């Protein structure tokens, strides 16, 4: 008998018991029907008709004084209301009865399913750490008493990992539990539990911006999906497809996937999962520069969180709203959101939140301190315990003079450091987080050396470079590919590229950050290969694109003095850039700084003759002639 036939049978059975006024039979068939709908997760709106029967069943139980039936009814009542009607007036009553039944002498499987339902509600639903901890204690007791069942082992890992994501400060706890659980489900041939485990693993990896790890988990999730998968499993898949695209800067693809996930979850009728996907859509819209639209989505989620009395969804909505407001150059609004988030008492319990970039968390942390907002309320999110996270131990500065700063202090500048290890470092920086194959590195640095000698030189140079960076963990190696570990090394050019990408979407806060980071590109003497010259040109072009974008923003907002200072700095960094020269002269002309215009022209001409043996280009010379002619007319008029 398939599920459709089974549901029809239970519905018929319930009606038959109802006609006979058999209360025990009604409760039993009602509970079984809700169990099927809850486990199926296909169309939770089907629960509504059964929820409507709850009040009648409770009245019959009270009339017939059959309070012994309440625990049997509470399981389905709690599950149905937590999915569809968290604001139901009787929800607290059924929740209390259900929690009490966990301590009773029910079969292990029954207690497990109830515990799973409770854990889903107390983590993803409302973020209630004390009750989630209580439920986890029940599960641990069951696991210690009898873990011979595969179902016990899988539910134990699902619930433990979910609790660890939200409330455990140890960043390794959740992925370790998931990996152990996935290995168990494979051994026990119980793939049904893989999707909820991969869901929490992806939340953890994406929240920590662990792109490679999240990609591996998403691939594993995709392999589990087939024509028999639940509809909501596809919503989970599209949600994290959107998350990874967003982290990668592919915002159009991210929006498409996030809206698909939201559409699926909305149709399946869940009460809280569409809120997560709505917040995802909001952040992506903000990254596309559609800030007002994004904040409207956040506003809907805030209202939902208030209606459901959900502190974690509320905290997410306000923190995400603050990050969007800050990136939209509305610090006053970001402060207001932060204050409300800090006033949410349970907010201090959360260790991490999805859909907030780590760089935005840092900016919000600074805003919190500057605004004198309660520092303890959001301390776990803004200032995770030092011993619980993998902090970077060195900072690599490539924009301007190459420098390496370790946790022991500064090392000498690039003039005194060994050239070959620094050249290797720059190749790894230019390769990005994906890194380069060992053989390719040998070819780029020692093109005239045979394979054996090149590998020996690479091994020696790696040893020296790791020493300069402060430890072996600075450089990762996986299947012959070498890369800098972004969790260990903070690279300024990588951060510059991130900020530029965000600035292209219209986030001027990021444009300001990017301009502040850029101090020129790395030393000429170290960029003697084609790949490094290409990377240098890539950074210079990004800066050249960013400066007029930010200057136009300043002028639109009646801040011409800031635009002037921006072009002064830009021309200092790149005196051969014709656009910088022309735009600076135009602004100087507007301010009436004639003497500085003459000095600027002389300097630009000298730089071009020295570097290129060429005079100023035709557009600049034309503007100069027009400037001179205009000033002569002005002088004649005054005479």
Report what the structure shows:
Among the domains are: 230-389, Serine Threonine Protein Phosphatase 5, Tetratricopeptide repeat; 394-567, no CATH class; 575-639, no CATH class. The protein is built from 30 helices and 7 strands. It has helices spanning 3-20, 23-40, 47-51, 54-63, 70-84, 91-101, 108-125, 129-145, 150-167, 173-187, 194-207, 211-224, 231-247, 251-268, 273-287, 291-308, 311-327, 331-343, 358-370, 379-382, 419-431, 438-445, 451-469, 492-504, 508-517, 530-556, 560-573, 578-591, 594-612, 618-638, and strands at 394-397, 403-406, 409-410, 436-437, 475-478, 481-484, 489-491. A hairpin with a 2-residue loop joins strand 5 (475-478) and strand 6 (481-484). Helix 5 (70-84) packs parallel to helix 7 (108-125). The longest helix has 27 residues, at 530-556. Residues 385-391 have low confidence and may be disordered.
Annotation, overall tally of beta strands: 7
Terminal CA distance reads: 104 Å
**Morphology:** elongated
Coarse structural class: mainly alpha
Q: Topology, please?
A:
Layout: H1 3-20, H2 23-40, H3 47-51, H4 54-63, H5 70-84, H6 91-101, H7 108-125, H8 129-145, H9 150-167, H10 173-187, H11 194-207, H12 211-224, H13 231-247, H14 251-268, H15 273-287, H16 291-308, H17 311-327, H18 331-343, H19 358-370, H20 379-382, E1 394-397, E2 403-406, E3 409-410, H21 419-431, E4 436-437, H22 438-445, H23 451-469, E5 475-478, E6 481-484, E7 489-491, H24 492-504, H25 508-517, H26 530-556, H27 560-573, H28 578-591, H29 594-612, H30 618-638
């Amino acid at each position: 008998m398939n599920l459709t036939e089974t549901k029809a049978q239970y519905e018929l059975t319930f009606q038959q018991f109802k006609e006979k006024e058999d209360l025990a039979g009604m409760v039993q068939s009602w509970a079984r029907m809700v169990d099927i709908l809850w486990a199926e997760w296909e169309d939770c709106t089907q629960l509504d008709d059964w929820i409507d029967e709850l009040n009648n069943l409770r009245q019959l139980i009270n009339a017939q004084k059959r309070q012994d039936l309440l625990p049997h009814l509470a399981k389905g009542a709690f599950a149905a209301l937590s999915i569809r009607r968290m604001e139901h007036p009787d929800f607290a009553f059924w929740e209390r009865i259900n929690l009490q039944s966990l301590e009773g002498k029910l079969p292990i499987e029954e207690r497990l399913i109830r515990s799973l339902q409770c854990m889903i509600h107390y983590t993803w639903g409302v973020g209630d750490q004390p009750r989630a901890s209580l439920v986890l204690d029940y599960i641990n007791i069951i696991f210690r008493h009898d873990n011979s069942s595969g179902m016990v082992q899988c539910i134990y890992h699902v619930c433990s990992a979910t609790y660890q994501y939200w409330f455990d400060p140890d960043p390794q706890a959740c992925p370790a539990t998931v990996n152990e659980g996935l290995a168990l489900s494979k051994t026990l041939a119980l793939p049904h539990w893989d999707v909820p485990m991969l869901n929490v693993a992806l939340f953890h990896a994406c929240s920590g911006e662990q792109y490679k790890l999240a990609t591996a988990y998403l691939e594993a999730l995709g392999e589990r999906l087939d024509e028999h998968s639940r509809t909501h499993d596809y919503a989970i898949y599209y949600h994290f497809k959107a998350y990874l695209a967003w982290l990668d800067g592919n915002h159009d693809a991210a929006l498409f996937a996030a809206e698909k996930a939201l559409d699926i979850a909305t149709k399946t009728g869940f009460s809280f999962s569409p809120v997560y996907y709505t917040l995802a859509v909001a952040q992506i819209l903000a990254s596309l520069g559609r800030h007002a639209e994004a904040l409207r989505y956040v506003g809907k989620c805030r209202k939902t969180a208030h209606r459901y009395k959900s502190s974690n969804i509320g905290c997410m909505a306000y923190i995400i709203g603050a990050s969007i407001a800050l990136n939209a150059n509305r610090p006053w609004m970001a402060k207001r959101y932060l204050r409300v988030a800090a006033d949410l008492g349970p907010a201090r319990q959360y260790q991490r939140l999805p859909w907030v970039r780590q760089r935005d968390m840092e900016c919000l942390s600074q805003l919190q301190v500057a605004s004198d907002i309660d520092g303890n309320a959001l301390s776990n999110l803004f200032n995770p315990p030092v011993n619980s996270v993998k902090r970077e131990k060195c900072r690599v500065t490539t924009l301007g003079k190459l420098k390496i700063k370790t946790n022991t202090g500064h090392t000498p500048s690039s003039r005194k450091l060994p050239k070959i290890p620094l050249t290797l470092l720059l190749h790894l920086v230019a390769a990005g987080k994906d890194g380069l194959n060992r053989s390719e590195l040998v070819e780029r640095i020692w093109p005239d050396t045979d394979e054996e000698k090149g590998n020996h030189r690479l091994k020696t140079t790696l040893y020296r470079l790791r020493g300069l960076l402060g430890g072996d963990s600075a450089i990762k190696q996986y299947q012959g590919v070498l890369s800098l570990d972004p969790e260990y090394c903070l690279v300024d050019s990588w951060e510059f590229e991130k900020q530029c990408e965000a600035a292209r979407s219209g986030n001027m806060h990021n444009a300001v950050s990017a301009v502040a980071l850029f101090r020129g590109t790395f030393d000429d003497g170290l960029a003697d290969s084609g790949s490094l010259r290409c990377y240098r040109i890539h950074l210079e072009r990004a800066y050249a694109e960013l400066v007029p974008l930010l200057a136009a923003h300043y002028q639109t907002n009646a801040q011409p003095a800031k635009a002037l200072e921006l072009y002064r700095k830009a021309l200092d960094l790149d005196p051969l850039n014709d656009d910088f020269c022309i735009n600076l002269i135009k602004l100087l002309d507007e301010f009436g700084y004639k003497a500085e215009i003459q000095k600027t022209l002389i300097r630009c001409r000298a730089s071009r003759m020295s570097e290129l043996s060429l005079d100023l280009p035709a557009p600049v010379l034309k503007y100069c002639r027009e400037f001179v002619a205009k000033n002569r007319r002005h002088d004649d008029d005054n005479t």
